[in-house]
Design a protein that fits this description.
Number of domains: 3
Helix content: 25-40%
CATH superfamily of the largest domain: MutL, C-terminal domain, dimerisation subdomain
Strand order of the largest sheet: 5-4-3-6-2-1-7-8
Number of strands: 26
Distance between the termini: 82 Å
CATH class of the largest domain: Alpha Beta
Radius of gyration: 31 Å
Structural class: alpha+beta
Largest sheet: 8 strands, mixed
């Protein structure tokens, strides 16, 4: 078959296959054009999931006759200066969108500049142009796209339901709104619930816009990012480790104002939270990166959804550092949604109903730690699970409560949960989870300054293990010494432990060594020990922490609370679970119907 020149209409339809994937991609291109045109208010209206109608109205600069005619030509753009693709500073620049849309739909564009007496309207119906003709309108541009893919049934049948396509449009507009807080966005139509996100400017504008789009609870349970490193500026909000989702749909990435998908940024988020979240949970993040436009290539994907950093390592490092610093500054703070979950688990009995079985005057109950006025336990209803305190605590004056964010210990429940009171409410602390995090952070600090100090065993502890586990431990022994664990082979099926990390005290040595052996078997490489430093430390910290079921003295409980306040990341254990729950006084009053 001889080579031939393709007709213009077919060229446009081929280009449309790259640019116009679905209605949402059309909305993205048109709204980006409006933003580039300096619009301060953009109204998006849809019908039938965008397949029937997409209408984008803006108050931007508008176009005169010459620009309007060129706008629907292929590779015509106002967004490149000096034909330089290494310095992209606008959202749209390829010059294909309008020509491609006009080849697969009914397209009309009406526009007016500030100094024109009237506007002009141009139509393109499946590649055939008509106009422009005069039209009375305000300054700006109105673009309507109707009957998308009506003449391309092969493309139309691959679209999803109206509801799914409408949701995809919402997601696109949401991301554009998050990237442009100074622009007022209105999204409405017959196929959706309306959304109205007024413009916000000045200090706190970004947080305000994220609150509008993602909800106030995100802004309240996130830390602010503000860092600059290696020419990479990192801003935005990162959710607390206890504020997570079951998927990554609530992770948003923006580079130089453009919403993107990028493996470097996804990997950086995963690394930054690796110490704090469950493996199957995903932090909520709105990450904004600013770099020199010459250091990033945004032209690697037809829809400009992906990009390539010239120095990906510097970007990754800057993101990890920004999030780590922000989470460290947050200290022991945990998300308040944990308290909401707890409140949701409570159910109040109906008036007149019998008391719950867990409340009984026959159940043994410990005396309260606040015993300045000693009262015999029989005078009160008793609650299963409270343990007799091993020391008394005198009543503290109210001002002392406010001195400590995590309050002072009042009781211990089920030999694992510390009940504390501060100036604002009540706290429940998981003693094992909290101490596990404290030990883990101390381990990391010691390891950063050199080998972890160890303590010798008076008599080496001999542990019998399968021969393959002994072989792995013997090979890994030099690396494990960095962690304060000294062991050697003791026959074919045993190892002798001579020294253990001093930080762990009298820990379960047998369980610790078996756990480390399991890790080595899982990683299938002794060389991975150094790479799995956090995992090794986590396993050791678990065995060195205060165990569930241990009754603590009052001074021990209060010491744990003070250590939590002084230790970064202590609001969640090393597995990502919260270490404490705080119930404000108003929350407790709400449980009893006392709130107004």
């Amino acid at each position: 078959m001889p080579i031939r020149q393709l007709p213009e209409d077919l060229i446009n339809r081929i280009a449309a296959g790259e640019v116009v994937e679905r209605p949402a991609s059309v909305v993205k291109e048109l709204v980006e054009n409006a933003i580039d045109a300096g619009a301060s208010r953009i109204v998006i209206t849809t019908a039938a999931g965008g397949k029937g109608l997409m209408r984008i109205e803006d108050d931007g600069h508008g176009m005169d006759r010459a620009d309007l005619l060129l706008s629907v030509e292929r590779h015509a753009t106002s967004k490149l200066s000096e034909d330089e693709l290494d310095d992209i500073r606008t959202l749209g620049f390829r010059g294909e969108a309008l020509a491609s849309i006009g080849s697969v739909a009914e397209l009309s564009i009406a526009s007016r500049t500030a100094h024109a007496e009237s506007g002009l309207r141009l139509e393109v119906r499946h590649g055939v142009r008509a106009g422009p003709v005069p039209l009375a309108m305000n300054r700006g541009t109105i673009v309507e796209v109707k009957n998308l893919f009506a003449h391309v049934p092969a493309r139309l049948k691959f679209l999803k339901t109206d509801r799914a396509e409408a949701a995809a449009i919402t997601d696109v507009v949401k991301r554009l709104a998050m990237a442009n807080p100074a622009v007022h966005f209105v999204l409405n139509g017959t196929d959706r619930s309306p959304a109205n996100w007024p413009a916000v400017t000045g200090t706190g504008a970004l947080e305000a816009r994220l609150g509008q789009v993602m909800g106030d609870d995100f802004a309240q349970n996130a830390v602010r990012l503000a860092s600059s490193r290696h020419g990479v500026v990192v801003a935005g909000l990162a959710g607390l480790p206890t504020y997570t989702r079951a998927n990554s749909l609530s992770q948003f990435y923006f580079v130089n104002g453009r919403s993107v998908r990028d493996k470097v940024l996804v990997g950086a988020i995963r690394a930054a939270y690796a110490d704090y979240t469950f493996r199957d949970r995903f932090p909520v993040v709105a990450l904004y990166i600013a770099v020199d436009p010459g250091e990033v290539d945004v032209n690697v994907h037809p829809a400009k959804a992906e990009l390539r950093f010239r120095d990906a390592g510097a970007v990754r490092s800057a993101v990890i550092r920004a999030i780590s610093e922000a989470l460290t500054a947050a200290g022991f703070k945990a998300s308040d949604t944990v308290a909401d979950d707890v409140l949701g688990a409570f159910t109040a009995p109906a008036y007149g109903a019998p008391a719950p079985q867990t409340m009984s005057t026959a159940a043994p109950m410990a005396r309260s730690y606040d015993q300045s006025h000693h009262v015999e336990p029989a005078a009160f209803a008793r609650f299963d699970g409270f343990t007799e305190p091993s020391a008394r605590i005198e009543a503290e004056p109210a001002p002392a409560l406010a001195e400590y964010p995590l309050g002072t210990a009042r009781a211990q429940m089920f030999d694992n949960f510390i009940i504390a009171q501060n100036g604002e409410g009540l706290l429940l602390v998981d003693q094992h989870a909290a101490h596990e995090r404290l030990v883990y952070e101390r381990f990391k600090a010691q390891l950063a300054s050199g080998p972890v100090p160890s303590q010798s065993q008076l008599i080496p502890v001999v542990i019998e293990l399968p021969e393959e586990d002994c072989a792995r431990l013997e090979e890994a022994a030099p690396e494990l010494e960095r962690f304060g664990l000294y062991l050697e082979r003791f026959g074919p099926r045993a190892v002798a432990v001579r020294e253990t990390p001093a930080l762990l005290g009298n820990s379960d040595i047998d369980g610790l060594v078996r756990d480390v052996a399991d890790g080595l078997a899982e990683w299938d490489s002794v060389a991975a020990v150094s790479d799995r430093m956090e995992a090794i430390i986590a396993r050791m910290a678990c065995h060195g922490s205060v165990r569930s079921g241990r009754r603590l003295r009052v001074d021990e409980m209060n010491a744990l609370l003070r250590d939590m306040e002084a230790t970064p990341h202590s609001g969640q254990c090393i597995h990502g679970r919260p270490t404490y729950v705080e119930l404000k006084k108003k929350d407790i009053e709400r449980l009893f119907g006392r709130s107004r």
